[in-house]
Design goal:
10 helices, four-stranded antiparallel sheet, 252 residues
């Protein structure tokens, strides 16, 4: 079966620094893949590379079609979305309107039409995103009325509303407490079960190892391990590079 997102031999160099070196990663249909590693391992650089925000060498395909060399907005139109570490939302818009912005690419005629007739009813994809992320009660709220956890969920919902085939999540649990992280994990599994493939980068090991189907581990820009969460948890290379003594005790 052709993976939804395929990256082979992806490398990124910044001057004399090799940020990524020949990284291979696949995200299958309806699969939640985790990408972990210590600070500076190249996790965000990998997301930047596959989504077009960093110049990269290697093979990058979406649904069997090469997207290497395409601009970020073109990749997004093909169905590859991402979130950012900081949940940047339009504070003057409601949650529902923030999602609607992600669905439209209005031209001059559409803009003029909305000025005369008012904003159209929410698209079905917006309603679906609100439902899947359990944000319907907050649809009319503004971002400054939300908790940090809710703002992160809106960022994910915005990518869902754009009808993405794959969403790359860059540290969605950063700044969340344990309860918020657990709630995020439940919603991510709901997204995957509903057919959206996800690539999750996060430092919250409880979240990553608890919800992912497959995990890839980076260290100094190279893949050092891959497998199921249980296999990765017990891999001595991962314990030494990243997870530390707590993981070693848990694997004992």
């Amino acid at each position: 079966m052709t993976p939804v997102l395929l990256a082979e031999q992806v490398s990124v160099r910044y001057g004399g620094v090799q940020a990524l070196a020949d990284v291979d990663l696949e995200v299958g249909e309806g699969q939640l893949v985790g990408l972990i590693g210590p600070n500076g391992a190249g996790k965000t650089t990998f997301i930047d590379a596959v989504t077009g925000f960093a110049r990269a060498r290697g093979r990058i395909e979406l649904d069997g079609r090469s997207i290497a060399g395409l601009a970020p907005d073109v990749r997004a139109r093909h169905g590859l979305a991402r979130t950012w570490q900081s949940a940047e939302l339009f504070d003057e818009l409601t949650v529902q309107e923030n999602l609607a912005v992600a669905t439209g690419r209005p031209g001059l005629w559409q803009t003029a039409k909305e000025l005369v007739a008012g904003r159209p009813a929410p698209r079905r994809s917006v309603e679906r995103a609100l439902r899947l992320l359990e944000l319907e009660p907050l649809a009319g709220a503004r971002p400054d009325e939300l908790t940090q956890g809710q703002r992160k969920l809106v960022g994910v919902a915005r990518a869902v509303a754009a009808d993405a085939r794959v969403i790359c999540l860059d540290e969605p649990a950063a700044g969340l407490d344990t309860a918020e992280s657990e709630a995020l994990g439940r919603r991510l599994r709901q997204l995957v079960d509903a057919g959206t493939s996800l690539l999750l980068v996060d430092h919250d090991m409880g979240l990553v190892l608890g919800v992912c189907d497959h995990v890839v581990v980076l260290d100094f820009g190279r893949v050092i391990a891959r497998g199921t969460p249980e296999e990765v948890r017990r891999d001595q290379r991962v314990v030494e590079a990243y997870l530390g003594s707590a993981a070693a005790e848990a694997a004992a």
